[in-house]
């Protein structure tokens, strides 16, 4: 009984007209969640089943799609329950855990895109050394770093905030994000400094690496024959589209955290719904349509 009494609950106060549209919100989110799981799982299964897709590039694509499924699972089930509940609340410990998973998996997406950029760089710029460099061991190391490195980085501020004193128990959002810092009575400058270090390590540096890598690929492709240019365009364009799409999501989250209460609740709610609705559907659509081998197997599957 004492343990239950001492649990701190946070109210998710970012919903708009929930009593009026709760069933509409639920049906939209439930449909999107099923589509996310089915579309991502379909391409992952194709990559696993077909041996001609057992190449580093497709393995990284499968890892990226798996990451999208895990990230959407962090968000959607709790949202679906909240839409049907009278009170939209979450315990402080569960909220911290959701923040940890959300940002660890979000950062992993940047590192997975960086690994894919490196794979394309070696494939196009150093084709003779490709089998030697991109061995199974290299792929496993890159995948392990993509998931473990962000998790280790995010652990620090989560553990520090776990003992922080709360002066406000209403979060302006529909799920737990960095906006949780606005609820603390005192925000430690150490958290801000550490947050900047994490931001640079798991998002800015990978983005700069991806930009540099694709710039080198485009320069070499421009100087080469038409076949190399065609290969570069077909394999790099989907990755760039995914990077731009995801960078917009990440930038939006950073802007919301900085603006805090200055941002309209309705605009915040609408933008958040749009982003969590279309972002995780973009990856399977882009890779399913733009990657020739995957597109071919999808046509065989459905036609």
UniProtKB/TrEMBL annotation:
InterPro entries: GPCR1_Superfamily_Member, GPCR_Rhodpsn, GPCR_Rhodpsn_7TM, Olfact_rcpt. Residues 39-287 form the G-protein coupled receptors family 1 profile domain. The keyword Lipid metabolism does not apply. It is a multi-pass membrane protein. GO terms for cellular component: plasma membrane. The chain crosses the membrane at residues 23-49, 56-77, 89-118, 139-160, 191-215, 236-257, 269-289. It is found in: Cell membrane. The keyword Plastid does not apply. One of its GO terms (molecular function) is olfactory receptor activity. It comes from the Eukaryota. Belongs to the G-protein coupled receptor 1 family. This is Olfactory receptor. It comes from Parambassis ranga.
């Amino acid at each position: 009984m004492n343990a239950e009494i001492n649990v701190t609950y946070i109210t998710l106060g970012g919903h708009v007209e929930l009593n009026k549209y709760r069933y509409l919100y639920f049906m939209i989110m439930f449909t999107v969640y099923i589509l996310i799981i089915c579309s991502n799982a379909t391409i992952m299964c194709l990559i696993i089943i077909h041996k001609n897709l057992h190449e580093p590039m497709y393995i990284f694509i499968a890892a990226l799609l798996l990451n999208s499924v895990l990230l959407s699972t962090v968000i959607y089930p709790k949202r679906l329950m909240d839409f049907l509940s009278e009170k939209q609340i979450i315990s402080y410990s569960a909220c911290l855990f959701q923040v940890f998973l959300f940002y660890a998996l979000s950062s992993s997406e940047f590192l997975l895109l960086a690994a894919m950029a490196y794979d394309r760089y070696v494939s196009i710029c150093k084709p003779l050394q490709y089998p030697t460099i991109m061995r199974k061991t290299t792929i496993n190391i890159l995948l392990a770093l993509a998931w473990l490195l962000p998790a280790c980085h995010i652990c620090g501020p989560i553990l520090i905030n776990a003992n922080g004193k709360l002066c406000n128990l209403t979060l302006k959002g529909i799920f737990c994000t960095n906006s949780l810092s606005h609820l603390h009575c005192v925000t430690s400058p150490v958290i801000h400094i550490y947050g900047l270090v994490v931001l640079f390590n798991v998002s800015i540096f990978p983005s700069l690496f991806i930009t540099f890598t694709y710039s080198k690929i485009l320069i070499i492709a421009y100087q080469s024959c038409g076949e190399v240019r065609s290969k570069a365009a077909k394999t790099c364009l989907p990755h760039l589209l995914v990077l731009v799409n995801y960078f917009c999501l990440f930038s939006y989250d950073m802007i919301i955290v900085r603006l805090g209460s200055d941002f309209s609740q309705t605009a915040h709610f609408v933008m958040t719904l749009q982003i969590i609705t279309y972002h995780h559907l973009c990856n399977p659509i882009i890779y399913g349509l733009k990657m020739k081998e995957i597109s071919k197997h999808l046509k065989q599957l459905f036609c």
